[in-house]
């Protein structure tokens, strides 16, 4: 019943956003992918993750900034409709 209803009802914004992030994270470097899983899927805080990994919160914060920049770049490429490589002729 729910499968048939999903064909008739517009996709929720949350589902669309989750799909967008899932598509982008697949091409992330391994350290950013692992960070994403820990913070956003595993619900760790930056402080708890730093403690688990035996590193500073500042290091985790820096990785999180890199993850943010990665997503920004990935979404800009998607909006341009390509893979980010401009063909110059």
The termini sit apart by 52 Å
How many strands in all? 0
**Share in β-strands:** under 5%
Radius of gyration: 17 Å
Return the structural class: mainly alpha
Order of helices and strands: HHHHH
Mean pLDDT: 86
Residue share in helix: over 70%
| Assembly type | single chain
General shape: globular
Largest sheet: none
Number of helices: 5
Low-confidence stretches: 84-89
Brief sketch in words of this structure:
The protein has 5 helices and no strands. It is an all-alpha fold.
What does this structure look like?
- The protein has a domain at about 30-80.
- About 70% of the residues lie in helices and about 0% in strands.
- It has about 90 residues and is an all-alpha fold.
Features:
single chain, 89 residues, mainly alpha, 5 helices, globular
What secondary-structure arrangement, pairings included, does this model have?
Layout: H1 2-8, H2 13-25, H3 30-41, H4 46-53, H5 57-80
Helix pairs in contact: 3-5, 4-5
């Amino acid at each position: 019943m729910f499968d048939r209803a999903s064909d008739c009802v517009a996709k929720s914004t949350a589902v669309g956003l989750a799909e967008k992030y899932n598509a982008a994270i697949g091409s992330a470097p391994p350290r950013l992918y692992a960070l994403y899983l820990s913070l956003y899927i595993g619900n760790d805080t930056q402080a708890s993750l730093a403690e688990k990994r035996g590193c500073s919160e500042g290091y985790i914060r820096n990785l999180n900034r890199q993850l943010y920049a990665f997503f920004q770049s990935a979404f800009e490429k998607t909006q341009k409709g390509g893979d980010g490589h401009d063909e110059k002729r």
